[in-house]
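Try this one yourself first.
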């Protein structure tokens, strides 16, 4: 496990301190979770970009053609 030193503005530190107190976790746990969430988001973006680069409009059209031509149920309507 590594140790880092982090400088935060007092206002941000105070808000984090209030939040972790309310959630009964440590600031270290909060920071580790926040970093993990950010890394997951960035890795997901890269994964989706790689998948999009391999995409094919022709194959998409073939897949879409297999979908039934029916009206959506009420909960799925956009209007």
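Now uncover the answer:
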């Amino acid at each position: 496990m590594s140790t880092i030193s982090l400088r935060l503005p007092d206002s941000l530190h105070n808000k984090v301190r209030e939040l972790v107190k309310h959630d009964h976790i440590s600031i270290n746990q909060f920071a580790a979770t926040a970093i993990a969430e950010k890394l997951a988001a960035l890795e997901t973006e890269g994964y989706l970009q790689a998948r999009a680069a391999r995409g094919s409009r022709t194959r998409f059209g073939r897949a879409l053609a297999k979908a039934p031509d029916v009206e959506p149920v009420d909960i799925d309507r956009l209007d």
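Discussion: The CA atoms of residues 56 and 62 lie 10 Å apart. Helices lie at 10-23, 27-53, 57-65.
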